[in-house]
Write a structure and sequence with these properties.
Radius of gyration: 23 Å
Distance between the termini: 45 Å
Strand order of the largest sheet: 1-2-3
Number of strands: 3
Largest sheet: 3 strands, antiparallel
Shape: globular
Length: 438
Amino acid sequence: MDEKRRARRTRFINKIRKTPPESLGPPDSHDQAEVAAMLREIGIALLEVEQPTQLVSSRLLEIATQYTTQPVRVVVLPTVLMIQVGIVGYEVDTSTTYSVQLDMAGRIDDIATLASVGAITPADAIAATIRARNMRPRFGPVTTTLGYAVTAIGFGMIINPTWASLPGYLFLGLVVGAIAQLGRPFPSLSPVLPTLAAMIVTMLATWFVADTANDGLLRVIAPVLVAMLPGMSLTIGALELASSQLIGGTSRLVYGVAQLALLVFGVALGVHIAGEVRPQTASTQMGPWSLYVAIIVVAIGLYIYLSAPRGSLIWLFTAIAVALVGQAIAGKFVAAAYSGFIGAFLTVPFAMLAARIKTSPPAIVMMLAAFWALVPGALSFESASEAATGGNIGVASLGVTGAAILSIALGTVIGWSVFRTIDNRLPWPKGLAQPTVR
């Protein structure tokens, strides 16, 4: 009886899980220079979809073992990659481009997964990665702008869930979404977009939204500036520092602080032009149900705005739900600044396990969406903006911001470590992605 039950369980697992592809041949079947070129192309692509440097380095070394027995040295920085394979293959590349496209991140992760088991030739991996890096967003500018507005509404329902503010979130979200689209055809405008968006949104919120919504200025504009917030940079920087990646972590933190300063300057400039909003009595908050509705709204918005892979909406929704519900439950027992630890800690094993199911996207797609939903930058933006516009704020408030960012980074590190330790010791079927590289 036990054998029949075990056989049924094995058949069920094999039916739903992704089966690992097989290696094409033993190591040293390809030229060292070609292997180095493949590692360079995959590595720089992983950096462009905002992967921490220590994960990029470990993944490239894992891939290298499938293709060569020669010593491999890898140096990974946020914008620089250096590869040495044996004494022949040398590659150096730089990139200052970052993409928020989830379908691009998923495709690059698929290629890296194939390479990690030697199931693709270096030439094919290079060609597929080049195509992936040139992928266009699935949705056009108008649809993407609408997706951003939907995301802004969802974040507003998380940060400041009031009925009166919803029209303001929609209006300002459309404005910021349209401004964000300017960075695609005109990349040279990207450095000034955060300041421009923050200034315009602050002016519009002061003139048309804050009084109508009967809400404070920062509570209205923080959710709609989510695309400009440096939350991912600050979190990845803290994650790299926690992993002893001092150069990468420090440079990302400095970049995040600089982006934050540009946003704060834009808010201060907007307040100077439009004038200050008179003190407001906070609007009546929605009920506890608003969090669960917000999860659905954020998932739909990010699916469109971040150009998620086809068929991944339910997985994005589930990953975001794990992160936000875990954060909300933790908030009942610990300070809000530390609740992100639980959200991040739960997201990592969920994404890694869910990625083994046939219909799921790569784990990186789910984790990026979940980390966007945790919005660590919103806290720092509100604190710094309040100080810049003359609000009453102290060192303790800025300390809470730092704690929120570090808690998410620490939750990610511990979640990853615990999952890998348990996963390596238990004999369950692991499975890998089984992508089709087109």
